[in-house]
Amino acid sequence: MATFAEYAALARQLADQRRETDRDAVAADRRRSALRATLDQLTRRLDAQSHRLDQLGRAAGVPAEPAPEPGTVGAGGAAAAPGRPGVGAYPRGATTTGAVVAVPAAAGVPAPRAGSVDPGAELAEARRLADETDRLIGLTEAVGRRPPLLPAWSPLARALAVYAACAAAGVVLAVVLLGVAGVVASPGAVYVATCGALPVLCFVAGYLVLGRWGRPALGADGPPPRFVPLGFVTCVLLMPLAYCGYLVLFRLLG
After folding, report:
1. Whose CA is closest to 137, among 197, 195, 51?
2. What is the mean pLDDT of residues 132-141?
3. C-alpha to C-alpha distance for 177 and 172, rounded to whole angstroms
């Protein structure tokens, strides 16, 4: 027959187990609260990333893909969402009463499978992917703020290179026109065309090139700098001088 001491020992053991269970329950509640707060923070972060990616897509002229609809699961079956490599597919949810359970797709984090995946590890992996996405978005924005034409050059150097290239192309075209049109036209008309109209056309070509490919896709509220005086001097003045210098050198050597 059990004595009072044995009953007291059992009561103390039961009280200790109850206190331990209560501590475990409190710790589990705190962990769930921390996971829920982390999930809410991550959801807001992913929503902001999605909004920023939509803005970048519209600025780059890329149509945005339609957002997936929230999944629904009924009594007939369960829809699965893809998980990260090594984990497999995650169920969107199921019920035994036949009620429909909607799982929001905007959360950006697949629901972990019960008893097989640590939610904390999944959230840590999702946070790592979000950090990588932020890095890639930053790189995309940095690239988008540069013009497609000579992105590493300064606006002045870019404009000078474009006008100089147009002027050089104009000199080559003037030499070709002199050889072709000089046979059927007077030398005076050829000189007027190559030293008057052609330089203006080269200047207009450089002006249009800078307007089309010298403007960044992001952060450009107005037209890009085109340095009109620089282009005028390069094409309209220096090109005829270079062309006439070529003719003088050709005659001296000939």
Report:
1. 51
2. 90
3. 9
